[in-house]
Amino acid sequence: MTTIAREMVEERVRRMLVHDFVRKEVARAGFGGLSIQRTPLGTHIRIQAERPGIVIGRKGVDINRLTEELERTFGYENLQVEASDVENWALNPDVMASKVANALERGWNYRRAGNSMLQRIMGAGARGCQITIAGKLTGLRHRTEKFIEGHIKHCGEPALQLMQLGYSQAKLKPGTIGVKVAIMPPNAKLPDEIEVAPAVVEQPPATEEGEAAAKGEEAAEAAPTDDEQADVAEAAPEEGAQSEADAGKEAAKAPAGDEKANAAEAPKEGAQPEADAEDSG
Fold it and tell me: Are 42 and 77 within 8 A, CB to CB?
């Protein structure tokens, strides 16, 4: 084995040991996982916990003690330890596994503990969950009980990429009971879930000749056609003839009205001499 491969294996083993060590130290705070990052200034460890205040302690005493123990035990230099809160503890498999183990240690029946935690996880929005409880559950013989709901992947790349695993142990009088929690988060996207995007038609690049042709077409559409011009020319004489006919009718009505007025005045003039003759007699 080459030196580089040996160093990689040793680093991986050390990270696993750090993970187990921190899990035991901060079990009361609800351990939710940790991340280790190597920087030019040293190593940075971020611990996620349900109650980060217990990890930090009063005036940072507990987290300083934990930092010193990690440097002394695992040989880290310039180690920085940070504690943060878990965003959604109901979707964190490590936190839920520890809750199932604590419920078993308090005397809960394994069916009650498994079903209650399963409903809590699914109520938080998980796509699927599987809780496995193994050990001496009801008698002297070993048993394995599984509580499953939703969509679960058991093998293949989706199981490695999408499923989140958490482990814990409950120590009872008959023996140790192991708890395993597998959760598929709400944002998990399965390989068979695809979205068909609408087709996009690319327009050809505009050129000077194309712009000139487009302007010519717009001008041709805006200009009146030969049929429209002919309709306008035919409509103009018809309107002129209509106006002349209307004027003739009005002129014919005017003399008729004058004759009627003269005829009405004529009897009045004839009646006047008759009245004068009667007065003289």
Answer: yes
pTM given for the model: 0.64
Rounded distance between C-alpha atoms, residue 78 and residue 68, angstroms: 10
The Cα–Cα gap between 97 and 94 comes to 5
Q: Which residues pair with 31 in a beta bridge?
A: 49
Residue 40's H or E segment, with its range, is none
Going through the chain in order, the beta strands assigned E by DSSP cover 31-39, 42-49, 79-85, 128-135, 143-150, 164-171, 176-184
CA 100 to chain centre: 32
Class of domain 3-86 (CATH, top level): alpha beta
CATH topology of domain 91-184: Ribosomal protein S3 C-terminal domain (3.30.1140)
Q: Which is nearest to 40 in space by CA: 92, 94, 77? A: 77
Dist CA 129 CA 50 (whole Å) = 20
Taking the chain (281 residues) in runs of 10, the rounded mean pLDDT of each run is 83 90 87 87 88 88 90 87 88 92 92 93 93 91 93 90 92 92 92 86 69 68 58 54 57 51 46 44 40
Alpha-carbon distance 83 to 63, whole Å?
Answer: 8
- Both tokens assigned to 280: 């003289």
What is the Cα–Cα distance from 279 to 31, expressed in whole angstroms?
141
Q: Where are the domains of the chain?
A: 3-86, 91-184, 217-268
Q: What angle do CA 12, 16, 22 make, to 5 degrees?
A: 140
Q: Is 38 helix (H, G, I), strand (E, B) or coil?
A: strand
Q: Encoding tokens for residue 187?
A: 């944002």
Closest by CA position to 83, among listed 43, 16, 34: 34
Q: How far apart are CA 48 and CA 83, in angstroms?
A: 6
